[in-house]
Design brief:
Strand order of the largest sheet of chain B: 2-1-3-9-10-14-15
Structural class of chain B: alpha/beta
Strand content of chain A: 25-35%
Helix content of chain B: 10-25%
Largest interface: A-B, 92 and 113 residues
Number of helices of chain B: 7
Order of helices and strands of chain B: HHEHEEEEEEEEHEEHHEEEHEE
Radius of gyration of chain A: 23 Å
Number of helices of chain A: 6
Distance between the termini of chain A: 44 Å
Helix content of chain A: 10-25%
Shape of chain B: globular
Largest sheet of chain B: 7 strands, mixed
Oligomer: heterodimer
């Protein structure tokens, strides 16, 4: 192909792509969301924790990626870092290359939990907000179909551990606040999901003032006063402010929320939503 | 080679992926910032790749649809209680991934609109409609990236998960110290038996459990033809998913499927140590995500499992892996009382359990590649599994199932 025709072909393809492109996604700049974050902390009883994007290791070729949501996203060859500053959610995920390169930390949940607590404190987070730590393992098993069908499965191999630090403020549990982390063999996180937003003083006071409710029929326990906020990963534009509420667990494992009057309600983020 | 495989496996795939990325997304402008991971490669190759895609390489079919099949009402099916959160979980997943990016909404089939034959392959099952364009779980047109089932599963004879006989708790003689002692399956269960064990804090004795034929339970008596039971276990399998033209017809089910990621949410859909017998429906589908309770509990049917799975795509986009998101879904799901109670609550299980990810391939390398499918590749038919000679699972347990494994060998 002649050079001029090649250029023309490129031009036509480029124009076609541009003309058919989707409208630009709503973007919130880092500086705008910093302002939002500072506003939301003005009446806080407990500050939120926003992970410093400068501290994440993403591997080579890091770039900022456009997003269709309120997340800012940075991608490298080994990991993807996303953050919503208005909800204080920070998420680090390994890419496929990152997973292939990863080696697990430790050989048991006990070791991993210990490192998680240590890392949590290194970030300047308050020890007295740790409600509990739980841990799970991720393991792999691969074999030929025939051997597996005979029950001769190869021994599972460890992939990683996952520690989950749950949160309380002055004894009030905040179930959707999370500090989930998995460490690589160097003791640094290769994956985390940190949702540790500010808790307003009036909401904490309201939660502490909630009266004791009797155990409801079909529940495992009496309703527990909590502070409820929406999961930070919601695409919806507006984050749900923390509210004082009750939570109980039915015997089928379903979570039930009640308002300050004891009436059951369905938080908007657990209700069915329609796509546009 | 690491647990997941070898980084060298990526070289060929990255090259293909670059071209497919270009061909897969014809309606968005490609900018350096959008695909920063491959930025430098794109600078060098984009010209040639684009030309190849336009003039040489046949366009690869994009599969953008996300379908869900959720059964909440079981009132017409005696013995099966209704489930309040199935639709919220499945539709919540779908709306989040659709709102966040490049997936599109497909079928929304609920309650009596979900029938057993909608999951079954016509090549093996008379009346099977899984490839039907308006009702099928594995419909080829329009091609489906993700199909999500939420509803009841069967927990074996008398709900015992293969642990007792005739509704009578097995005597202590059924306790075991090794799987070699588990050779006497109760009625309706089969060998191989396994000596299952539990985390230390539970103080439960190890005991034998046997295989049984799992099924999804639908409730559409006027449409269903197989008693509303979708069996998918080895020996009585009626599902063959993902048999696209790129996967080939190795499973004997033709090439009239498409689904790349199947999500199965329900009780006892598989058990961790017997995942390979419990699900035998591979025909090209790349990954199957299954809730797998351990033998001391069950899946909690909670509204936020689906949305928790979606968060991986919402936050990470196309280059994040489906596996990573299914792993997160254990730790983000609020429902369930957890493995050992107390601070372990949540995780989507009442008791111990795992979200498991199953994949197959003609070779071990293919399995290792398939299990790390990204959300972007989940929309692309080019990476379908080409066999099931090798099968693999990732267990995302809600306890330390490495130090305290679910079976005693």
């Amino acid at each position: 192909m002649e050079k001029s025709k090649l250029c023309l072909a490129w031009l036509i393809v480029g124009l076609a792509m541009a003309s058919c492109s989707e409208p630009a996604a709503e973007q919130i700049s880092w500086t705008q969301t910093i302002d939002q974050a500072s506003v939301s902390t003005q009446r806080e009883a407990s500050p939120g924790f926003l992970f410093d994007p400068q501290k994440v290791e993403l591997g080579p070729n890091v770039g900022v990626t456009a997003s269709a949501s309120r997340f800012e996203r940075m991608e490298g060859e080994l990991a993807i870092f996303s953050q919503r500053r208005d909800t204080f959610l920070s998420v680090l995920q390994p890419t496929k290359a990152g997973l292939l390169a990863m080696k697990p930390y430790g050989s048991s949940c006990i070791e991993h939990d210990s490192r998680a607590r240590e890392y949590f404190l290194e970030q300047g987070l308050p020890e007295n907000q740790i409600r509990g730590i739980r841990c799970g393992a991720t393991v792999s098993q691969v074999g030929t179909r025939e051997e597996l069908l005979k029950g001769r499965a190869p021994k599972p191999e460890l992939v990683s551990f996952r520690s989950v630090i749950t949160r309380q403020v002055e004894g009030i549990r905040i179930p959707y606040s999370r500090f989930n982390v998995s460490f690589g063999s160097d003791g640094m996180p290769f994956k985390f999901h940190i949702d540790w937003r500010p808790i307003p003083g009036d909401v904490l006071a309201a939660a502490k003032a909630l009266p004791v409710l009797a155990k409801q029929s079909g529940d495992l326990d009496a309703p527990e006063p909590i502070i409820l906020h929406s999961p930070g990963y919601e695409v919806d534009a507006v984050a749900i402010e923390p509210i004082a509420a009750y939570q109980s667990l039915r015997d089928d494992g379903t979570v039930v929320y009640r308002n300050a009057s004891g009436a059951e309600f369905v938080p908007p983020f657990t209700a069915m939503r329609e796509e546009p | 080679m690491g647990v997941f495989g070898n980084r060298n496996d990526l070289a060929r795939e990255e090259c293909v992926a670059l071209m497919l990325t270009l061909s897969d997304r014809p309606w968005r402008p490609l900018t350096v910032s959008t695909y920063s991971v491959t930025r430098n490669k794109m600078r060098r190759l984009s010209g040639w790749a684009l030309l190849l895609c336009c003039f040489v390489v046949a366009p690869v079919r994009a599969a953008t649809r996300v379908d869900y099949f959720a059964v909440s009402q079981y009132t017409q099916c005696p013995g099966w209680g209704s489930l309040s959160n199935t639709i919220a979980s499945a539709s919540g997943f779908r709306s989040l991934v659709v709102n966040a990016g490049s997936f599109t909404a497909g079928l929304s089939r609920e309650d009596a609109e979900v029938a057993d034959i909608h999951f079954m392959d016509p090549a093996y099952v008379s009346g099977g409609l899984d490839s039907n364009g308006t009702v099928g779980f594995d419909r080829p047109s329009p091609a489906v990236a993700i199909s999500f089932f939420s509803g009841h599963g069967w927990c074996g004879p008398n709900g015992s998960q293969g642990q007792d006989s005739g509704g009578i708790e097995l005597p202590d003689s059924y306790n075991c110290t090794s799987s070699s002692q588990c050779f006497d399956p109760p009625p309706s269960t089969t060998l191989p038996g396994r000596c299952v064990s539990f985390p230390t804090g539970l103080n439960r004795p190890t005991r034998c459990a046997y295989s049984y034929k799992h099924y999804l339970k639908t409730c559409s008596p006027s449409v269903s033809q197989y008693a509303d039971k979708v069996t998918y276990s080895y020996g009585d399998n009626k599902v063959f998913w993902g048999e696209s033209s790129t996967a080939g017809s190795w499973a004997g089910a033709g090439t009239n499927g498409s689904v790349n990621v199947a999500v199965l949410e329900g009780s006892c859909l598989a058990h961790i140590p017997s995942w390979n017998r419990d699900f035998d429906g591979f025909a090209g589908v790349r990954v199957v995500l299954v809730t797998a309770p351990h033998f001391n509990g069950d899946t909690a049917m909670t509204a936020d499992r689906g949305p928790s799975l979606a968060q991986g795509y919402v936050t990470g986009g196309d280059n994040a892996t489906v596996a990573s998101a299914w792993e997160d879904a254990v730790d983000l799901t609020q429902g369930g009382n957890g493995c050992t109670g107390g601070d372990s609550s949540g995780t989507g299980f009442n008791g111990c359990g795992a979200n498991i990810l199953l994949s197959s391939g003609a070779t071990t390398t293919e399995v290792l590649n398939n299990r790390l499918t990204t959300w972007g590749k989940a929309r692309n038919e080019a990476y379908d599994a080409n066999g099931n000679n090798v099968e693999g699972a990732l267990w995302f347990c809600n306890w330390d199932c490495y130090s305290e494994p679910p079976t005693v060998d």
